[in-house]
Amino acid sequence: MKHSKFAIIVLVLVLLFLYLPIFIMVGDSFNADKYCGKWLGFTFKWYGALFSHSNRNIWMAFERSIIIAITATLSSCILGTSAALAIHKWKGRLQTFHYSLIYTPLVMPEILMGISLLMLFTAIGLNCGMWTIWIAHTTFCVSYVTMTILARLQDFDDRILEAAYDLGASPWTAFFKVQLPVLMPGIIAGGLLAFTLSIDDFVITFFVTGPGSDTLPLQVYSMIKHSKQLPVINALSTLMIVFTCALVFLSRIVSSYKKKGRSLTQLRTDIKGVK
Q1: Cα angle at 221 between 219 and 223, to 5 degrees?
Q2: What is the pTM of this model?
Q3: For the segment 179-203, what is each residue's pLDDT rounded down to a tens digit?
Q4: For residue 98, what are the contacts with CB-CB under 8 A and spacing of at least 6?
Q5: In this structure, are residues 42 and 26 in contact, taking their beta carbons and an 8 Å threshold?
Q6: Domains along the chain?
């Protein structure tokens, strides 16, 4: 089949639009020019500056981002799993309203959500800080986790739970031994999505943050406006890209080994069956 030249040109333009800025940023992290206006030579000094004592605020912000992302992911997975089970199991007007509340943050602009949460915290007298950021991140992450698990529940056969009850299992035992393992891929996928959204969020965090609780996106934004070492941001972004690519590559290797392990097990079973 002959490929169209127009389709190839469009594909190349789209790839350039998506990835060319990333390659430029990675290249500027090794550029000796402070303002990245022109190439003045290859250097690692911006990586050294990144790990210097003068830029410890970056790593403090990164630590806060990791803590908030992990805690928000755990809380949103618990609440999202409970909400998905409730919506799936019970039907009625109350669950329809419940579903609307879960779905609303997905379509609401982030700036409106940030302003509304800030007004709520101000009304109840809660000082903005790490706790308010965690609450805000959990609020919008729950919706993504719930929708992911609901998609998993669409293929779940409730007769499996009924069989577990008939065999004498309690509701908690049936949930942990039967239903939870089936839902675990959806929970993991929702958790990964929540973690990514939390560690990357800027707009909502900007409204609900307080003194001394800036996350990494807010710290990077502040450095872009006031820092005299802009290439340090490029160095940090490059390291994050390398770390993300390494995780993706490692997950692909693990998944491929698991697939090979399953195929070998099935082969052994078939051989035994022939014998």
Answers
A1: 70
A2: 0.78
A3: 888 888 888 888 888 998 898 889 9
A4: 83, 86, 87
A5: no
A6: 5-43 (no CATH), 53-229 (1.10.3720.10)
